[in-house]
Design a protein that fits this description.
The chain is an alpha/beta fold. The protein has helices at residues 25-36, 47-59, 70-81, 101-105, 124-129, 150-160, 211-220, 246-277, 308-317, 336-339, 368-376, 388-408; strands at residues 63-67, 88-91, 109-112, 135-141, 163-167, 175-176, 179-180, 187-191, 204-208, 283-285, 299-303, 323-324, 377-380. Bound molecules: pyridoxal-5'-phosphate. Pyridoxal-5'-phosphate (PLP) binds at residues 69-71, 95-96, 98-99, 141, 167, 169-170, 191, 193, 202, 204.
Length: 409
């Protein structure tokens, strides 16, 4: 058996991996056009409008509303739900705070559905079990490029008359039963942050097929103010300014042109990696489902037969950096905003207000599947500029560590 690098053996990989270089000539060209147009403001420019139109056309929806980030997109969607203080919105325990904080920012209460410990995606049965007479919406987070069981969740949302918002920040242009995730709910939200399948550095987008929803999305993105729908100086309701600039619009248009190629490349590379490590001892891959794609924002698998930290250290020592546990704990335990109700000043609003109908407690026992999944998950970045040989090296290091640690156990 080959000696592990962590025990003084030679490394699987000494060369650095190729950098992801998401921006090219087309981005430069359109960005220059935007700057030369002498307007970088959405209302007087053409690029954001074009991006919205093209984005909606790509996904096959009626409307798209640009935003400044994924968090802003989700906040805008929650703003459209317009919850009363203390209403509940169900979201994911394993995600970015951008799927949680907007709920509190609209004075509603985040409720966490448990997840499948392998895919880390929200479970329909747990979503349904968490529905109460205060539930207004579900934010369904498709994690790591892997669409959730969308059909089941659509049925639950319809049955209980709650609004379905899809969080596709990690799952762009990815098909579930032949149709893109993000087009099933009343709204689908996307992030264009640097690490995402398409990026404008920061930025976001919301899809909808419903005209009324679209008008409210537009108003919520611009201080309740839109010349097209309101009088010049009328403001429909309390709302932030999440207007995208023409610079993001220009880069976004160039990114959208290659989005599906990026996604297809990641699907293919992820499949190769899954096949190559499927038999590694003490390792469990995420099964590749037949009815949906996985576009691997990052690649994940589980370390069930070794100590996950020791395993990731052994793989990293082979020249393939790898980390265990993703966000480590359910997202609501990373910070005080829920565990201690640190919301607005010292008020703890809305938790200790007359607007809530029960006590809320945010501990790990709420989501045993998420705790188990985070205990075993290992995360490795893969991207469209990697070659199959790069993927083979990653697989080689995983297999080497799996056999080496099994042998030494
Ligand atoms: C699942 C998920 N939701 C929401 C967000 C928030 O997006 P942004 O960082 O653009 O605000 C992210 C970003 O990492 C995310 O991964």
């Amino acid at each position: 058996m080959e000696k592990l690098a962590i025990h003084g053996g030679s490394k699987v990989r000494t060369e650095p991996f190729p950098e992801r270089t998401p921006f090219g000539k087309r981005e430069e060209e359109l960005l220059l056009q935007a700057v030369r147009s002498q307007t970088l403001f959405v209302k007087s420019g053409r690029f954001v409008k074009e991006l919205e139109k093209e984005f909606a056309a790509f996904y096959g929806t009626q409307y798209a509303q640009a935003s400044t980030s994924g968090t802003a997109a989700i906040h805008t969607a929650v703003g459209v739900v317009n919850p009363n203080p203390g209403d509940e919105i169900i979201t994911a325990p394993i995600t970015d705070p951008g799927s949680v904080m907007p709920i509190l920012m609209q004075n509603a209460v985040p409720i966490f559905a448990d997840v499948d410990p392998k895919t880390l995606n929200m479970l329909p049965e747990s979503i349904e079990a968490n529905i109460t007479d205060r539930t207004r919406a579900i934010i369904l987070v498709h994690l790591f490029g892997h669409p959730c069981d969308i059909d089941e969740v659509v049925k639950i949302a319809e049955k209980h008359n709650v609004i379905l918002i899809e969080d596709c920040c990690q799952t762009h242009a990815t098909k579930y039963k032949g149709r893109y995730a993000g087009t099933f709910g009343q709204m689908g939200c996307f992030s264009f942050q640097q690490s995402k399948h398409m990026t404008t550095g920061d930025g976001g987008m919301i899809l909808t097929n419903d005209q009324e929803t679209y008008i409210r999305l537009k108003l919520f993105s611009d201080k309740g103010w839109d010349y097209q729908y309101m009088g010049d100086r009328d403001h429909a309701f309390l709302a932030p300014n999440y207007r995208m600039t023409e610079m993001q619009g220009a880069v976004g248009l160039a990114q959208l042109e290659k989005l599906r190629d990026v996604v297809e490349r990641r699907i293919a590379l992820g499949r190769v990696l899954t096949e190559l490590i499927a038999d590694a001892p003490g390792v469990e891959v995420v099964p590749l489902p037949a009815d949906r794609e996985i576009s691997w924002w990052n690649y994940i698998f589980h370390v069930t037969g070794h100590d996950p930290d020791e395993f990731c250290q052994a793989v990293s020592a082979e020249g393939i950096s790898m980390s265990a546990h993703y966000i480590k704990d359910p997202i609501y335990m990373r910070g005080d905003f829920l565990t201690k109700g640190r919301t607005y000043g010292d008020s703890q609003f809305p938790f200790n207000s007359p607007y809530v109908s029960r006590d809320y407690h945010y501990g790990p026992e709420l989501v045993p599947g998420a705790v188990e999944g985070l205990r075993t998950v290992a995360v490795r970045g893969i991207h469209e500029h990697m070659s199959k040989d790069d993927i083979r090296d990653i697989a080689k290091a995983i297999n080497k560590a799996a056999h080496g640690l099994a042998g030494s156990a």
